[in-house]
Structures
1.
Amino acid sequence: MKMSDFLPEFITRHVLFALIIGGVSGIAFMIFLIEFDHYTSTEEFCTSCHSMELAAEPYRNSTHYKPDSGVRASCGDCHVSEGVFAATWDHFMGSKDLYKQIFGPDYDDPVINALHLPEAAFAARKWFKDRDSATCKRCHVKEAIYGERLDTLQIHLEDAKDKTCIECHYNLVHRTIPDEKTFKRDKWNEMIEQEFGLEKGTANKLLKN
Amino acid sequence: MAWSKQAFFFLLIMSLMVLLSQSVLAAKVTLEPSSWGLEEGKACVDCHTKSSSGLTHQWKNSAHAKANVNCLDCHQAYEDDDDSMEHEGSIIATIVSPKDCGRCHETEYKEQKGSVHVKAISVLKNKMPNLSEHFGARAGYDAGCAKCHGSEVKVRGDGTLDPATWPNTGIGRINPDGSKGSCSSCHGRHQFSKAQAREPSACTHCHTGIESPDKAIYETSKHGMLYASHRDEMNLKSDQWVVGKDYSAAPTCVTCHMGAVGKMKSNHDVGMRDAWNLNSPVSEKQYLVIFEDGDKRELSTTEELPRRGETIKKLDGTEAKVKVVASPKRRRQAMMKSCLECHSKGFTKNSMQQFDDFVELYNDKFGKPAKAIMQALYDNNLLTPLAFDEPIEHTYWGLWHNEGTRARHGAAMGSANMAWWEGMHEVATNFYGHFLPQVKSIAGKKGDELIKEHLMESEYHEWLNKTQEATNVLGFDKGKPHEDE
């Protein structure tokens, strides 16, 4: 018996080889993507840039890092979408962070980092909102937020019925930053200057550079 | 002719009454009801009934709720307000300042704006940095001084309120919007009950203890005694609360210091009716200077009386034009109006006479000589300029600030015990038992000279010379026996 007896005529030996090679490499590529997304979503990978280490400091004191239950959310759990295609896309888009890390301002400098942090926060909040807080919902189910008081569940089911997590729950993990609408650049700069013992006006100069 | 004389006085009184006649009711909010009840604010309550049911319950029982004033009406903020924040889609502020309350309660805002209460922080800053910094430190100031005097609320760059300065409802609080004071100092949020603010406790949660012992004084006065017995007859919830008309069982702090009396309206400038300064080493009668910008300051009668239109310094250091000056006599008259609702003129005048005599006795016998001797000790470099690093400075401080204040306040409000045993008696014990011996030990011969110069000329202290005159007060039966025995 020959294989050609079972296969349509156009599947020649070459085509078959191509299909097998294509299929295997396709699978390998998918596995690669999954692994790649996994690896690039870890705290270890993200904080390999010093600038991200600065963002991670407050995270390590947050309940998302050390909850009573021991369930730890990694960087990617919140900041990278579910599913290999979406995750890959997020990483692809996220590569602009890498571009900025290399060619942009010196985000590794704690002062520069803190000065630029609000815009990063606003962008992140928008990202969550646009996705209906999808990554929050990986773990959190609105119908199951019992909290410590009965009212907590009621509030989530009734008052927050049409709201998405991020609309109320921001400033949970990273450094506290006001909402974009009430953010005051001059006050923020002043605070950072005081924090690092810098002369008044330094922040403005640094931002212009 | 007797008749024409009577008619003359009748007309005089009538015309004075017409001049003074204004509404006796607490100032009504004159805005259109459409000015509040923001649509956006109606939803707050749904969630807050669950998340903070206590405060929502208080609000539900308030006159605000009945008038459809909702959370956002008071808590609304503009995006560029220093302390504004986004909350559930609205721009709000946690702190509701007097300026915010003044959006509707215009009269009260105007009155409190120039009052002695809003200057409670300047009093701290200008007079006694020693206490806050040397006796305490930041945390002591925050939990102690600032809780009554007020904090300078700081909004941090990240929009949060500095926990050292908030929560705080001190009466002179400096708010992020620049306004001064805190209405909730006396008007507990979120019910804002009239009855609660008319209770003595609205004042005595701060006016108690060493610096302002008025709680204990009021409670041990005849007025306090009557109040305790007849609290249920005080008509505290009444819309209008004019003494002699709506209640008469007893006066509370509010009655005499800011309440409506006859045609005299109530006023949120609480210190207006005080003629004396009773919280100083030596008491002086005080003018009340009212500036054209609405601000006010007190000025001792020992200082030059400013004229109308003259530009003088305000307490905050800036200058302003004088609009009018109220004399201590005028201020006393305002105070006496409330007395006269229950007491006769003679009774009232004599009571005030007893009070004035007591203050002058304190001044002349202890306050002035102690101050003069301390001045001489500093002038002769017998004391370091730093306060409280030498025992006598503590003695002197206790003399006028602790016991001296208690004595004078006690006399002002008719508490015999506070005026005498816990007041003047303590002053005397301190003065003869600690202060003078310390003067002698610090200054030696110079001390004896100072005591002679400032004390021995005065008949008040003559008894010190009669060292051989024995009495039985200490129980040693020396000298002439007591008459009873």
2.
Amino acid sequence: MLHLLVLAAEAVEAEQKNPILPDVAELIYGGLAFVIVFAVLWKFAFPVLGRMLEERTAKIQADLEGAERARTEAERELAEYRRQLAGAREEASQIIEEARRTADQLRRELQARAEQEAQGIVARAQEEIRAERDRVFQELRAQVGAIAVELAGRVVGRSLDAESHQRLIEEYLDQVARSGNGKRG
Amino acid sequence: MLAAILGLSRPPEGFHAPGTEIFDYTKTCLIGSGPYCVTRVTFWMLMSTVIIVTVFLLAVRRASIVPRGLQNAIEALVDFVRNGIVLEVIGREGLPFVPFLTTLFVFIWVNNLYGILPFINFPTTSRVAIPMLLAILVWFVFNITGIVKQGGLRYLKNTLFIPGVPKALYVLLTPIEFVTVFLVRPLTLAVRLTANMIAGHLMLTIFFVGTWYLQWKLITIPFAALSFALGTFITAFEVLVGVLQAYIFTILTAVYIAGAIHPEH
């Protein structure tokens, strides 16, 4: 302060040669210059600059919010897809399991039926064999009876000695065996 | 050698170091006559208006959300004042002061920059008028802000009687605060800026006049080269000083306004 006052006093003595004292014209023109700059910028430049700043802020904010929304949406959809995928997988394995069970059951049923059928066939064949045998047996008995009767007739018709008797029996047996052999093929 | 090329034929007799008179010859009238004529200094003061207004209006002409070219530069500047000074120092209540502080910054900056602009070569802020005027303006701005925001008495009370200090200390602190806030603040603002620009201009003048003086004799030419190199370095330094002083003036103004808005700080 004191220093400045001294300077100022010296300046006055030096006929305003000291640069620390202002020139009145410079005060006026300098002040005018500043006032004009401030007025014009205040009126024309700053409203536009401020608006730009606000618009940009709003736009960036909106963009960011939009991006955030899109991201949330995408994440939600991804989770949904994942959930669906897991469900589908579960369902697929269930279907496979069921198919396997069905096939198994079917196989068992078919097997049982086939076995049953086979048993049926065997039983029928045995039945048939038994019937055939009975029939043959029946037939044979009838033939044996007839042969016996014939043989008796022959025996009665010829007086046989022991030797011819024996021959007769052997002939007969041969005949029977032949006819039996022929029948049996 | 250089002078010979320029057509200056006769070397000067003896070296006269430039002093404060280099700030005085600017009183020669350029336009008009009398004590209020337009001199070289006042002409460039007025031209700063044309320069700043033109640049700003060109920048906001066809302004778009996606800025380009000049709009980008000016927006960066306003953004620097808005975010770097106002929001940082004052906070959101300071936003109405962005136009004022930006104008202050740009106006001081351009008038500082004159010191190193070719063919102008004179910082108009090295004349005390503009810094003094702006300092007084700032004084009114922060005091009126304080009165409007806090009320006259409360502002005075909060300024002179700092809250949270033992009562006995007020005997000591109140006079100091009074001198600091109401007298020293504008004085330091004005003197800091003016003195810096005077010093810069003096240094530039001395080194370039020295270069001119030393290049007449072959034997002193190396010193002329050295003087020229130093002058060039100081020119670059003055670019920094110019923007730094504008920034200091603006940020101190913001600090004073902040103090007027928030009494607790």
3.
Amino acid sequence: MLVIQNAKVYTMAGQVLEKGDIAIESGRFAAVGESLPVPAGAQVIDAAGLTAIPGIVDAHSHIGGFGSTMDDSDLNEMTRNATPEVESVYSIDVEQPGFKRVLSAGITTSAIAPGSGNVIGGLVCAVKSHGKSIGDMCIKNPIALKMALGGNPKGVYGPRNQMPMTRMGVAQVIIDTLRRGREYMKKQQEAAGDPAKMPPYDAGLENVCRALRREIPIKVHCEQFDMLTTIRIAREFGLEFTLDHAWGASDFYDEIAGAEGLRGVIFGPCGVQLLPGECGKVDIECLIELDRRGVCCSIMTDGPIMNPDLIVTQAGEAVRAGLPPERAVAMLTINPARIIGLEERIGSIEPGKDADVVLFSGMPTVDTAAQAMVTIVNGEIAWQRS
Amino acid sequence: MLLIKNGCVHDGRGQVLPQCDVLVENGLVKAVGPGLSAEGAEVFDAAGKQVLPGFVSTMTIQGATGPGWHDDDLGEFSDPVTPELSVVYAFDQDNMNFQEQWLYGVTSVGVVPKPGNVLGGQMAVFKTCGRSPYEMLVRERAAMAASVSAATKKPYAPRNAAPMTRMGAVSLLVAALKKAERYTECSDYDPKCEALQPVLRGEMPLFVNALNRAQMDAAEMALRDFPNVRLVLTGAYGLDETRESVRSGRCAALIGDVTEAGTQLNANVDYAGIGRLAQAGGLVGLCCGGDSFAGGKESLLWNAIQWHKNGVPAEQVLRMITSAPAEILGVGCAVGSIAPGLHADLSVWSANPIETYTARLEAVFLQGENLLTRKEVRKSCW
């Protein structure tokens, strides 16, 4: 058993304890409260002066899949504009330094997605930052089907004189794929179990059907007016979806808050050069109004694009714009856990959940100097500042 | 005249003056001190606020790339040695205005050619807001940009052209300087040799983009034969407090960016050691450009926050984004600190933004004009 004592604890399950204790057993939280009993033989961490929050969840990342220098991209299978059959889990190298780096920032789970080179990129999985192997660290696969709108797929296929060369083409690729998925599903249903009548097996459409059956959401890279395309297509096909990046969301509060099937907004990264078109508006302050309207919001690093410490810094920027600091913590923990469908297991400090917790030297969404001092994953001290 | 009253003034050189006034006349700081008065002056009440010098973002490409991702006016990769080029002709004020850098306190930028060339051309320093490149210009020919990083191989190696290696890059750098040394008034016109004369005389610093220790060592060794060259190591993730050239003041360093993680080279920066080196007088600034470019309006402050998070005192970090980079760029007598005679470029915050995310920008003055409240906002065409 491991007991963390005397921390300021944000459980993100409705409690803030000024001097709180957290008991961990067999990789899970056993209890959280004040002055918990310490059984004989328990390991104790004195966390006086430290702030405990649930392990941070990065709901949009590519760590372990882009090489350590971005030169070796194993997450963009850019041979066809739609590759729903591929799975990011097979491209993740957990020995890459990116995994140590996220631990030092307090990130304990990442949703690792195919890149945005393809309109339909493949399946997304959820991976803990610490463990023996990808098989051990991947806690759910799939959690979503990745799609990308806008300049990325256009930039890949346009120069090859292939579709999509335009946003019209991007939307058409998605619509076509979903229509074919629907048809595939219909034929399967009509076969009524008769193998002779089943359509030929299509690995890609099998995954598309998972989204059509709402078993997983589509996870869509989109900014500014492209978000409206996502909302429209999701409604037409009855899909669950997430808006990833979501720059310019402040232009479309009504559309986003009223969207059918929206799991949440995964915003970021800000801190980018502004360009006309899809990078013209980077408005992290949108999280305040979206949160007020009940949209489940989270913040991403797009790792390894951005130093993982910057997930907290971005939450700090939302605070600078007026978001209450504790809401900013929610956008790093319980909200992304919900968005990726793992709120039963991670995202808050509650008995029974995975013991993923970070001890910061201050309030991370307020004090710029607050550093992760200890990062605990599945009850193990996975990283400690020396 | 403008009188900023009762703020906590950080002069950018390490001094903190609580309850201090700043008097501004004709765009320049006229006086700094307690209890100043000036008849008829517009008063800005800064009681309880933090007054900081405008930040100086060196090594930026803003103003000269775009509007599309592929429209780049800073990478003249037709020749790896182009010291004769000047970024003045690439700078588009509309692009710069569009970035709204001033919303995060940045009032001056050093614009640099891309690090893909061994000698990229001449840097210039601009203000972050204005109506024409020439009105925004603080200093032309501020520094010569060079590079020995792996970025130099990218444009040329695939063409089977030099440089394909670091030794190839360094050799081109040394050859250009040697050739320029032999250039006299009697020589045939050579724009490259001519452009390098102020570098050889030590009048223009030579910024060498060198990321890790091996690249930094290569740059220093290669320049041993040029005693007057004033070397500034940029990128410089491999710096530590033992580096003699920076300790002794012979070289300066601009470190960054540390907010991007596309490279692992910035994963093990010796923050505390470099902080001590700067405290002891080493001329060290922060930047958010170079091989790994972070171009948001937030990026320079985020770099500063990373340094503070890793143990460097806030006042030291402030120097590293204000007076130190201004001095390195040769514009310390105009911008980068709050002192009489300097441009009245300063920002007013509700708290110290290097210390807390709750700090909000209350005003940002560019030569005495508050950009947050000015009546005529110049709209960018972007």
